[in-house]
Amino acid sequence: METVLEQNTRPFVDRRGSNDHSHGGPERRQFRATPNADRPEIAELGNAIDQYKLEHRRRFITFEELHSVITRLGYHK
After folding, report:
1. Residue 47 to residue 49: CA distance in whole angstroms
2. DSSP letters spanning 9-77
3. pTM to 2 decimal places
4. What are the angstrom distances between the C-alpha of 22 and each of 4, 15, 63?
């Protein structure tokens, strides 16, 4: 196990500005439902949230933004 001193001496890698997507995992901004979801409205909401995030270049959204996505889908109280 590494000590705190050993952890602090490793170089910091800033990947925020990098266009290198070779890290292998899925895009972290995905909000889609699981592939075997049996409720299509859940998949529709997940896809709408993903689309919003891509359009607005957001990784996380606020509850106001979530409300906006939901109302654009036609839901209301």
Report:
1. 5
2. HSPP---TT----TT-SPPTT--PPPTT-S-HHHHHHHHHHHHHHHHHT-SS--HHHHHHHHHHTT---
3. 0.57
4. 29, 11, 31
C-alpha span between 51 and 66 (Å, rounded): 12
In tens, the pLDDT along 1-51 reads: 566 566 567 676 666 665 655 555 555 556 665 666 678 888 899 889 999
Name the helix (H) or strand (E) containing 13: none
Question: Tokens 């995905």 — which residue?
Answer: 30
